[in-house]
Automatic annotation (TrEMBL), chain A:
It comes from Demequina mangrovi. The keyword ATP-binding applies. This is Peptide/nickel transport system ATP-binding protein. Belongs to the ABC transporter superfamily. InterPro entries: AAA+_ATPase (IPR003593), ABC_transp_ATP-bind (IPR050319), ABC_transporter-like_ATP-bd (IPR003439), ABC_transporter-like_CS (IPR017871), Oligopep_ABC_C (IPR013563), P-loop_NTPase (IPR027417). Coiled coil: none annotated. Keywords: ATP-binding, Nucleotide-binding, Transport. Pfam families: ABC_tran, oligo_HPY. Residues 1-12 have a biased composition (Polar residues). Signal peptide: none annotated. GO terms for biological process: peptide transport; transmembrane transport.
UniProtKB/TrEMBL annotation, chain B:
One of its GO terms (biological process) is transmembrane transport. Pfam families: BPD_transp_1, BPD_transp_1_N. It is a multi-pass membrane protein. GO terms for cellular component: plasma membrane. Residues 95-298 form the ABC transmembrane type-1 domain. Belongs to the binding-protein-dependent transport system permease family. The chain crosses the membrane at residues 12-30, 101-122, 134-155, 167-188, 276-301. PROSITE patterns: ABC_TM1 (PS50928). This is Oligopeptide transport system permease protein. Its main location: membrane.
C-alpha cells in the first residue's frame, strides 16, 4: 500500500509521465578534460534520448567516453572536466548551465546514481544508516527523525537487504561487496528518481551475485517505472538488460539501436569486432595461428589442420606427461575472533589435480573460493598446511632452499592488475631483465639481447625497453608482465586472472598471444579465473572450486556441455548473454 | 581492546627498564664530582664529603646505586634534590606548568592546521593556497629557538603586548606567546597533512556518491571531506603532544617558565642523578601512555580499525 502511495504522489507532483516525450534529451554533448598535456576531448558530439521507464545501455571499452557521458548527465565530472558543448535537457529543462545548488535538486530526486565500485563508494567512517538517511533527508522524501529512519529501512529492504534494521548501525567494511552494492542501489533509488544511472554497477562482483543484483534492479525499476541508463563494457549484459543499446568508441556513438537487432545484425565494423572478440559460451578453444607454420611463415592458419588438432587435443592431453601434480592440498588460516579465540578458515580444503605438459588447466571459482590461494601454494609463495605439490618430479615440501630456488625458475606468474604488478620506477628493460639478474643468467649484453627477443615474442617493439610502465596501455603492460614471466624460459606459467582487467578487444589479443606462446614454447598454464566465458576459449581442462574444494573437474567441452554439479550450472547460467545468439 | 591495552602496557616494561638504566648510566658517567661541585670554591671537610656521599648512596658501586634507585622508584620514592626537596614535590609543581603550555600549543596548532589546511585544500593552486605554502616554508625553516627569541624581542620587548618572561606565576595568559610560537613552528606538518587529505578526499568516490545523492556542498565539505581528512591530522597532533612535553627545555629556558624542561635542564647542569633520571623516567612513561592513547584514538576515528 505505502509503495503505491509514494509512486502516485510523485507523479502528481510533476507532469504525469508521458511515454512519448523524452525524459532526458542529450544533444551533441561534448566533454573536455584539461590536462598537463593539453585538452582531451573525451566525449565528442553524443546525442541520445531516454524515455520514461526505458532501459538504455551504453557499451564501450575503457576510454570510450561511456562513463564520462553518464557522469556529465548529472554534472559530476572530475575536477578537470567540463561540458564544452551541446545540451542536456531533463524533463524539457536545459540543465547544462545549472550551478551546484541547482544540480543538488536534480541529483537524487530526479536522477539517481549507482556507482561502479561498491568498495570505495561508501564513506568508511559513517555507518550505513547515516549514509542512507542523509540521502533521504536531502531529497525531502521523509521528514522527522522517525519517518526518515523508517524510510531508510524500507529503502534497504527494497534493495534486498532483508535484515536492514539490524544492520543500520554497521559500517561499510562489515558488509560484503554485494551487500554494499545493495546499499548503493538503495541510496540511488531512495528518493524514487525518474532516471537511474547505473555505471557498471556489478562489474566488481561475482557473476552469480551480479545476476541476483541485476534481476533485483530490473524488477525495482519496472515496478516504479524508473528509466535506467546502464553503462557497461559487456555486450552480452547490455543486450540482456536493456531495450536499446548505444555503442561508443573514442568519444563518439558508432552505432545505436534496439539491443537484439544490434547484436545479431551489427552494421558498424567496430561493433562487429566487439562482438567477435567477446568470449561467449558458444566460442571454441583458441588455437595458435602460428604453430607448426612458424617455419614456413607464409601460410595462414589451415582450417583442416586446426580441426584435426581439435579432434586430437583431448587424446593428446592424456598422453602428455604430468608437469604439475597436486595431491590433497590444504591451507588453513587461523582467523582471530577475539583475544584468545581463533577459528580455522579452510581456504584450500584438500584439492588434487594434474596438469599435463603443454596444456591449460583453468581453476574457476567465485571470490573466496580459494582459487588464488591454491595458485600461491603452487607457486611456493605460501607453505601448504598439508598435501603435496610436485612440479617436474620435484616435491616442493621436501625440496631444499636451493632446489626451491631452481624450481622458481621453472615456474613463473602473471598477475591480474598490470598497473600494480610493474614497478613504476623502473624501465621496461630493467623489469623484464630482473628475473635473469636474480638467477644470474648471462651478462649485461646477453640479457639485453634476451629482453629484445622477449619483447619481440610478445609483439612489442624492442625500443620499448627504454620506456616506463606509465607510458603504456593496460594491454601493453600485460604483455610486459608476460614477457617477464617468460624471461627464464619456464615450463609452467600461472596466470592469476591475467586477462580480467583488460577490455574485450585487448583481452582477445592477449589470449591469442598466450595460445601462440603455448604452442611455440610448449608451455603449461595454470589459469586462475572467475570468468567462465574466458575459460571456454583458453582451457583444455577445468576444475571448478567452491569453498576450498574442487566440486567438478573434467575436459572443458564436457563441463560446458554437460555440467554435473548444480554449482557449475549456476555459474554457467549467470554468464551474461548466455542465451543470446551473437551475429558477427 | 582491553587485551590490546594490556599488551601495550606490558611492552612498556622493557622500554622503561632500558631507558632508566641508560639514563642512569649516562648521568653517572658525566665528568665532574657532583658532591664537590656542591661546595663551590670552598674546600670541604673530608668527613662531611663522606657523609653527603653516603646520604645519596654515591659511595656504592654503579650497579648497586641503580638497583637501589629502582627499588625507591617502584615504591614511589623519587628521591630528593640536592637542595633537599622531594623530587615528587618538584614534579608536582613543574608538571602542571608544562602541561598547560603544551596543551595550549597543541590546541592552537590543531585549529590552525585544520582551518588553514582545509581552506588550502579546497582552493588548491589558488592565491590562498600559494600564500600558505610560502608562509609554511618560512615557518618551518626558522629554528624554534630563533623564532622564540624573535617573538620575545619584538612582541614582548618592543611592542609590549605580552610579558617578556613568565616567572613563577605561570598563568594561561602569560604563556600565550610562547605557546603560539611553538604552535606555529610545528603546525606546518599538520596543515600539509590536512591539505593533502582534503585534496584526496575531494576526488574520492564516496564524495562523488554524496553529491549524486543530492547533498549540497555545505553538507559534503564538513561531513564527508573534512571528517575523513581529520584522521591523520589528529594522530599527528596527538603524537606531537608527547614529543612537546619532553621537549620544552628550550622554550621554558628562554621564557623562564618553571616547567619540567627547565627543572630538568638545571638538574643536568648540577649533575643531580636522581632528579634527572626520575624526570626522564616520568617523561618516558608519559610518552608511552600518550602513544597508546593515540593508537586507541585512531580506532575511535576510523571504525575500520579494531584492536584485538
Amino acid at each position: 500500500m505505502t509503495e503505491e502511495n509514494t509512486v502516485q504522489t510523485l507523479s502528481t507532483g510533476a507532469a504525469p509521465a508521458d511515454p512519448t516525450t523524452p525524459l532526458v534529451e542529450v544533444d551533441d554533448l561534448q566533454v573536455t578534460f584539461t590536462t598537463a598535456n593539453g585538452d582531451v576531448h573525451a566525449v565528442r558530439g553524443v546525442s541520445f534520448d531516454i524515455y520514461p521507464g526505458e532501459t538504455v545501455a551504453i557499451v564501450g571499452e575503457s576510454g570510450s567516453g561511456k562513463s564520462t557521458s553518464a557522469t556529465a548527465l548529472i554534472k559530476l565530472l572530475a575536477g578537470n572536466g567540463r561540458i564544452s558543448g551541446g545540451s542536456i535537457k531533463v524533463e524539457g529543462k536545459d540543465i547544462t548551465g545549472y550551478n551546484e545548488q541547482q544540480m543538488a535538486a536534480v541529483r537524487g530526486g530526479i536522477i539517481g546514481y549507482v556507482p561502479q565500485d561498491p568498495m570505495s563508494n561508501l564513506n568508511p567512517v559513517w555507518n550505513i544508516g547515516f549514509q542512507v538517511r542523509e540521502a533521504i533527508r536531502a531529497n525531502g522524501v521523509a521528514k522527522g527523525k522517525k519517518d526518515i529512519e523508517a524510510k531508510a529501512i524500507e529503502v534497504l529492504h527494497q534493495a534486498g537487504l532483508a535484515d536492514a534494521e539490524r544492520r543500520l548501525k554497521q559500517f561499510p567494511h562489515q558488509f560484503s561487496g554485494g551487500m554494499r552494492q545493495r546499499v548503493l542501489i538503495g541510496i540511488g533509488l531512495g528518493a524514487d528518481p525518474k532516471l537511474l544511472i547505473a555505471d557498471e554497477p556489478t562489474s566488481a562482483l561475482d557473476v552469480t551475485v551480479q545476476k541476483v543484483i541485476l534481476d533485483h534492479l530490473e524488477s525495482l525499476t519496472r515496478e516504479k517505472n524508473t528509466a535506467m541508463l546502464f553503462i557497461t563494457h559487456d555486450l552480452g549484459l547490455a543486450a540482456e538488460r536493456a531495450s536499446k543499446v548505444i555503442v561508443m568508441s573514442q568519444g563518439k556513438i558508432v552505432e545505436a539501436g534496439p539491443s537484439l537487432e544490434l547484436l545479431q545484425n551489427p552494421q558498424h565494423p567496430y561493433t562487429k569486432q566487439l562482438i567477435a572478440a567477446a568470449p561467449s559460451l558458444a566460442s571454441r578453444r583458441i588455437h595458435s595461428t602460428v604453430g607448426e607454420h612458424l617455419t614456413d611463415g607464409v601460410e595462414g592458419p589451415d582450417m583442416l589442420t586446426l580441426a584435426e588438432r581439435h579432434e586430437d587435443s583431448e587424446a593428446a592431453v592424456e598422453a602428455a606427461p604430468v608437469v604439475v601434480k597436486v595431491e590433497d592440498l590444504r591451507k588453513t588460516y587461523m582467523i582471530r575472533r577475539g583475544s584468545f579465540k581463533s577459528d580455522p578458515l579452510h581456504a584450500v580444503d584438500g584439492i588434487s589435480f594434474d596438469i599435463h605438459k603443454g596444456t591449460t588447466l583453468a581453476l574457476v571459482g567465485e571470490s573466496g573460493s580459494g582459487k588464488s590461494t591454491a595458485a600461491r601454494l603452487v607457486l611456493g609463495l605460501e607453505k601448504p598446511t598439508d598435501g603435496q605439490i610436485t612440479v617436474g618430479g620435484v616435491g616442493m615440501a621436501d625440496a631444499s632452499s636451493k632446489q626451491l630456488f631452481d624450481l622458481r625458475r621453472r615456474m613463473q606468474v602473471v598477475f591480474q592488475d598490470p598497473y600494480a604488478s610493474l614497478d613504476p620506477q623502473r624501465s621496461i628493460g630493467a623489469i623484464i631483465a630482473e628475473p635473469l639478474k636474480v638467477h644470474k643468467v648471462g651478462n649485461r649484453k646477453s640479457r639485453d639481447a634476451r629482453v629484445a627477443e622477449l619483447l619481440d615474442q610478445v609483439a612489442l617493439p624492442s625500443a620499448m625497453a627504454d620506456r616506463y610502465p606509465n607510458e603504456l596501455s593496460g594491454g601493453q603492460r600485460q604483455r610486459i608482465a608476460i614477457a617477464r614471466a617468460l624471461a627464464l624460459k619456464p615450463e609452467v606459467v600461472v596466470l592469476d586472472e591475467a586477462v580480467s582487467a583488460l577490455d574485450v578487444l585487448v583481452q582477445a589479443q592477449v589470449l591469442q598471444l598466450l595460445a601462440d606462446l603455448q604452442a611455440e614454447l610448449d608451455l603449461t598454464y595454470l589459469f586462475i579465473t572467475h570468468d567462465l566465458a574466458v575459460v571456454r576459449v583458453v582451457a583444455d581442462a577445468v576444475a571448478v572450486m567452491e569453498k576450498g574444494k574442487i566440486v567438478e573437474t573434467g575436459a572443458t567441452d564436457e563441463i560446458f556441455e554437460n555440467a554435473q554439479q548444480e554449482y557449475t550450472q549456476r555459474l554457467l547460467d549467470a554468464i551474461p548473454g548466455a542465451g543470446i545468439e551473437f551475429g558477427a | 581492546m582491553l587485551m590490546y591495552v594490556v599488551r601495550r602496557l606490558l611492552q612498556a616494561i622493557p622500554v622503561f627498564l632500558g631507558t632508566t638504566f641508560l639514563i642512569y648510566f649516562m648521568v653517572f658517567s658525566m665528568p665532574g664530582d657532583p658532591v664537590l661541585a656542591l661546595f663551590g670554591d670552598k674546600t670541604p671537610n673530608p668527613a662531611v664529603l663522606e657523609a653527603v656521599r653516603a646520604q645519596y648512596n654515591l659511595d656504592q658501586p654503579f650497579i648497586v646505586q641503580y638497583l637501589l634507585y629502582l627499588k625507591d622508584l617502584l615504591t614511589g620514592n623519587l628521591g630528593t634534590t640536592f637542595s633537599g626537596q622531594e623530587v615528587t614535590e618538584v614534579l608536582k609543581r613543574a608538571f602542571p606548568v608544562t602541561l598547560k603550555l603544551v596543551t595550549m600549543a597543541v590546541v592552537i596548532e590543531f585549529v590552525l592546521a585544520v582551518v588553514i589546511g582545509l581552506v588550502s585544500g579546497l582552493r588548491k593552486g589558488g592565491i590562498i593556497d600559494n600564500a600558505n605554502l610560502v608562509i609554511a616554508l618560512v615557518l618551518s625553516s626558522v629554528p624554534p629557538f630563533v623564532a622564540l627569541f624573535l617573538a620575545q624581542y619584538f612582541i614582548g620587548i618592543k611592542l609590549g603586548w605580552a610579558p617578556v618572561t613568565v616567572g613563577a606565576n605561570a598563568t594561561w595568559g602569560a604563556m600565550l606567546l610562547p605557546a603560539t610560537v611553538i604552535a606555529l613552528t610545528i603546525y606546518v606538518t599538520g596543515m600539509r597533512l590536512m591539505r593533502g587529505s582534503v585534496i584526496e578526499a575531494q576526488s574520492a568516490d564516496y564524495v562523488r556518491t554524496a553529491s549524486a545523492k543530492g547533498l549540497t556542498r555545505r553538507r559534503i565539505i564538513p561531513v564527508h571531506v573534512a571528517r575523513n581528512s581529520l584522521i591523520p591530522v589528529i594522530t599527528n597532533t596527538a603524537a606531537s603532544f608527547g614529543a612537546l612535553i619532553a621537549g620544552t627545555t628550550v622554550t621554558e629556558g628562554i621564557f623562564n617558565i618553571p616547567g619540567v624542561g627547565k627543572v630538568l635542564f638545571d638538574a643536568i647542569i648540577r649533575g643531580e642523578t636522581a632528579t634527572v633520571v626520575s624526570f626522564v623516567t616520568i617523561l618516558t612513561i608519559l610518552y608511552i601512555i600518550v602513544n597508546i592513547l593515540v593508537d586507541l584514538l585512531y580506532a575511535v576515528l576510523d571504525p575500520r580499525i579494531r584492536y584485538v
